[in-house]
Amino acid sequence: MKIKYLLITLMGLFIYSSCSEDKMDEIGTNPNSPTEVPIKLLISQATLTTAFETFGVDLAWYSSVFCEQTTGVHGQLETADKRTGINSTIGNNSWNGIYSGTLNDLKIIIAQGSEGGSEEGYWTAVGIAKTLTALNYSVLTDLWGDIPYTEALMGSENRTPVFDSQESVYGNLITLLDAAIVDLGKTSSGTPGSSDFFYEGESSQWIKASYAIKARLENHLSNIDSQGSATKTLAALSNAFTSADDNMVFSSYTTDATGENPWFQEENDRKHHAVSNTIFSLMDGLSDPRIPIFFGQIGGQYVPAPNGTAENDQGGTIYSRPSSTYLQADTPQPIVTYDELKFIEAEANLRLSNTTEAYDAYLIAIEEALNRENVAADDIATYLAQSNVAVGASNLTLETIIKQKYISLWLFNPIEAYNDYRRTRFPTLQNTVGPAPERFPYPNDEVSSNPNTPDISYTQKTWWAK
User: Fold this and answer.
1) What is the maximum span of the chain, computed from C-alpha positions, in angstroms?
2) Does pTM top 0.85 for this prediction?
């Protein structure tokens, strides 16, 4: 959790004071304890914690084990893998951090930059904050289902917020993204610049990202309204990323001990994960050229860990781990990518029986995913020519698309791979102890303090997965 405190420390270096005609107004005011933080600092903190806390630590680590991109081989991840440690503690810290930290910061940005706020007219920041708010809430509702939304973030005014249905939350998030797009198109009084760790305050990029997130969410509703979901997904995609240059990626991790990629920290400090046999066997069956890029070897060979029955391997001597050249301290962390959107496009077109368009998008998605991992051009051509990859438009299935997407989402986007599995049941998981949880258990802090917390088992499907 080290990087979370980088910008908090920086904020403490700033001293704020206010001007007043009446000097008496200053009595009792500590100039070293600011009551309001500038938007630029809040944007830095919010973009950082979105990458690190929402997509980089506990929620990602457990999702990775649940969808079998990795196998838990030590500590809490091992017990979760063996279905003995899935309880109300596994997402507690992340739930609290997202609500009390990231979402609260974003709420302040929206208030300060909107009409009547202290930085009124800062529409670029307001649009960014609304986009990130939708993104963070989407992770919460995707993993837990019903969540506090309409009564959330009220502090001491309401410590027991109601839980809104996942269906209503999704509707609100789509509306919020639409509002973000409008705000990002307005003339703004300023830009966050380098304080924005994703796009350096570039409104046009954030508009594309808002549409990309909207497409992801619309596609999640495939089981609710297959045709309508597909149509709305394609409409959002038409305004989203047009190339890998638009990717939403956090690239500000450093080799300093306080700024490392959280997956790198996990591997070097805790060693809870090994390469899962599920993803390895899938890639091995496809002669996937990313195997030597992604995975390390044990004694000169790849040794994936079986889910549910792996030995404890904190020392990393039994099973393969992420390759040390692939996972480094400053490795960037993708949040939404062009190749993911092309896989979504392929799926949406397939649901609408647009087989040619679906197949074209599928092939582009694979090529873009391979390019993102710097696979050699000759190896890409060979892979795309294989009969089990180049299946032909008439033979393209949802399973084929999702399997390739599942591979492309390793190592840094397991939350979306977990979402896809719960929607589609692909790929087939191999844990022999028990099925993957359908959702995260509600956090212990919420269960103990909020009587409105639903009494729902982690074996019950979320609304959009039904």
Assistant:
1) 80
2) yes
